[in-house]
Amino acid sequence: MATNGPPVKIRGRGATANPPNRFERIEFEPDAEALAGSPPERTQYFRDSTRTAITRNNSPDVGFDYSVNPYRGCEHGCIYCYARPTHEYFGMSAGLDFETKILVKEEAPELLRRELSSPKWRPAPIIMSGVTDPYQPIERRLELTRRCLAVLADFRNPVAIITKNQLVMRDLDLLGQLAADSAAVVNISITTLDSELQRVMEPRTSSPVKRLAAVADLAAAGVRVGVMVAPVIPGLTDHELPAILKAAAAAGASSAGFIPLRLPHGVSRLFEDWLATHFPERKSKVLGRVRQVRGGRLNDPRFGSRMRGEGPHASNMRDLFHAACQKYGLKTGRAELSAEAWRGPASAGAASGGGAQLTLF
């Protein structure tokens, strides 16, 4: 049952309300006075009892086959996040529920070790996380991502990380072990260089300055690092593409990618409310540009176009991206990772790096 209400600014949160769950028939809508007087939404954590760690991807639009997601839901609160609707499968909302009710796979490191030890496993790149950020705030305490990385380092199984959080630097020791065998790449997601915009659009992520610092530190340590300009928001952040790529290259990034904004299911309403709350004067322009890129809609779910967009404006973004990458010496396309240093279960040692015990539940 989702709690729906009028959009209000909530400090430290991206969403302004809980829109209805598309699978539920009943919804609760509080009156505006009750909502305005309610205390700030606190983050809650729940055990995820899933008995597997590795998820198989079947989408032809995604450039990887396997991922590990220690967390479902993400406290970073990025308003545009395409993963928000996944919370609806748990009877929750894609809005505030997604960023305040986090499911934690507490046995992810042990499950991962078991699956890598299986004779059925063939060494292949694993993405962390592919859905929600593996370095969201609670990771500082629980260290589930670190413990999963320790397992991957034991087996020398290649891994690619996508994050908006400078906390990834904590695990430089493990990333360095993997990088020495060409088995690690870190992609730092940078959507804007404007810290004011970042604070309201991605409220609990690291600032753009800290993300660029992470790029520099990773590159200096010999870990291959790329930058993902994703999503690019037409009419709001698309003009920043060259500046972001220039800054990333100067910091030491070797590759780059970009994806135009897409707004699946309830994310479209959340994004519209967010624009009305924070940028009312730009709302019509931004939504109009999104529709130009998405065939007249706010989301195009078709394989082949959903990650690229279509039309003249999408083509202009692609041309701008490739021209900037060529100018600043950034590679495009999928990073190649090596599994040649793979160690079978007999030679993989006990998980290194330690880890915190769950005490939140």
Secondary-structure map with pairings?
Layout: E1 2-3, E2 27-28, H1 32-36, E3 44-47, E4 54-56, E5 66-68, E6 71-72, H2 96-100, E7 101-104, H3 108-117, E8 126-128, H4 139-142, H5 144-155, E9 159-163, H6 172-179, E10 184-189, H7 195-201, H8 208-220, E11 224-232, H9 241-251, E12 255-260, H10 267-278, H11 283-293, H12 312-328
Parallel strand pairs: 1-2, 3-7, 5-8, 8-9, 9-10, 10-11, 11-12
Antiparallel strand pairs: 4-5, 6-7
Description:
Strand 9, helix 6 and strand 10 (184-189) form a beta-alpha-beta unit. Helix 5 (144-155) runs parallel beside helix 6 and helix 9 packs parallel to helix 12. This protein has a seven-stranded mixed sheet. A three-stranded mixed sheet has the order 3-7-6. Strands 1-2 form a two-stranded parallel sheet. Helices cover 32% and strands 14% of the residues. It is an alpha/beta fold and 361 residues long. The protein has twelve helices and twelve strands.
